Amino acid sequence: MARTERAMTATKPAPAAHPSGDKRFKLLDRAINLHQGNGHALIEVLHTAQNVFGFLEDDVLLYIAHALKRPLSQVYGVATFYHYFRLKPAGEHTFILCQGTACYVKGAPQLQKAVEHRCRARFGETTKDGKVSLLTARCVGSCGLAPVAVVDGQMASKMSEADALARLNAWLGDDGKAGAP
């Protein structure tokens, strides 16, 4: 057998396991390899990482930066720019409030205050009991329906404080002590 034939038939050694022993990194490696480690696939790799891990922890971002040969600042910048990506575990429910100009003018700041008061958490956080994640979006593209919230993936148009609080009460219970220690 010729030398090149032997090289082609030789089995490749199994890739080394991630030092942490976490098998989810193997799934992430598949996504990275699918794109041949191309840094232009950063968003796709971040999507895969979030689907696999649930959110983007610091060590996952560092791993992606190293694998794609990109600066950590670039990976972190992309992860924080898009509201889809989470750097902390998500709650059981999500409440995303649009902060676009139309929503702002039509009452988003008042909605934000009422929601934060009810949940005892600020936007960008999850309630202490892990039930609700409060997020903002720069614009959800439904300006004619302002103010808009995306509640568990469903668009809620012309959202009033009463509507928002009713939804939160259903998730948290009517005792008004969401996120209380």
- Cα shape: elongated
What is the CATH topology of the largest domain? Glutaredoxin
Tally of structural domains? 2
Count of β-strands: 4
Our estimate of the beta-strand percent is: 5-15%
Instruction: State the order of secondary-structure elements, H for helix, E for strand.
Output: HHHHHEHHEEEH
CATH superfamily of the largest domain: Glutaredoxin
| CATH classification class of the largest domain | Alpha Beta
How would you state the average pLDDT, rounded?
Answer: 85
- Please identify, by name, the CATH architecture of the largest domain: 3-Layer(aba) Sandwich
- The rounded Rg comes to 22 Å
- Alpha plus pi helix count: 8
How far is the N terminus from the C terminus? 72 Å
Low-confidence stretches: 4-15
Break the fold down into its secondary structure elements and pairings:
Elements: H1 3-9, H2 24-34, H3 42-53, H4 58-68, H5 72-81, E1 93-98, H6 101-105, H7 108-119, E2 132-137, E3 149-151, E4 154-156, H8 161-172
Helix pairs in contact: 2-3, 3-4, 4-5, 7-8
Describe the structure in your own words.
This protein is elongated. It has two domains: 22-81; 93-172, Glutaredoxin, CATH 3.40.30.10. α3 (42-53) runs antiparallel to α4 (58-68) and α7 (108-119) runs parallel beside α8 (161-172). It contains eight helices and four strands, in the order αααααβααβββα. It has a four-stranded mixed β-sheet with strand order 2-1-3-4. With 181 residues, the protein is of the alpha+beta class. Mean pLDDT is 85; it is low at 4-15. A hairpin with a 2-residue loop joins β3 (149-151) and β4.
